[in-house]
Amino acid sequence: MKNKKNIFKEFLGYLIIAIIAALFSVTLRIFIIEPFIVPTPSMTPTLLVGDKVIVNKLEYKIHPIKRGDIVVFHSPVEKKDLVKRAIAFEGEEIALNKNGEIFIDGKKLNEPYLPKDIITSYEDQKFEIGKNQLFVMGDNRDNSADSRVFGPISLDRIFGKVIFIYGPISRIGKPI
Q1: Could you tell me the pTM of the whole model?
Q2: Among residues 84, 144, 147, 161, which one is catalytic?
Q3: Can you name the CATH fold of 35-171?
Q4: Does residue 126 carry a catalytic annotation?
């Protein structure tokens, strides 16, 4: 039978391990990756409402945002976080037309991540993307409140990149 001193040492050891694990978990979540649940249908079919995704919070501290990245950001109009696709960057002009076409600086945007059979019509709109701004759109173009509605977003609102779908099990994988 263990004496009280050994039991106390064992308990203290487990307590220290638990504290280290908790601190590591919190640090990981604050600075590196974070689980996130997709809140709206704006990214359908790429991401569905309720999809559980991993957001890489370190990505944009190391690498620049690329056109087509799925970014997570604090909404400029509501107190919630949103998921959209990076479309146009600082200094670019984006033009949308009734034929469902998007032009960036006069060149038609290729969007291989959208379903081939998608039929979309936009209002004729043009936007100049300002300094430290990003134009974002949902993949579900007819059901997405995005930069067409609230304008380009400030880069400081972006806190990560969606890198993996981990739930539900039937949808596990890397988003397009």
Answers
A1: 0.81
A2: 84
A3: Umud Fragment, subunit A (2.10.109)
A4: no
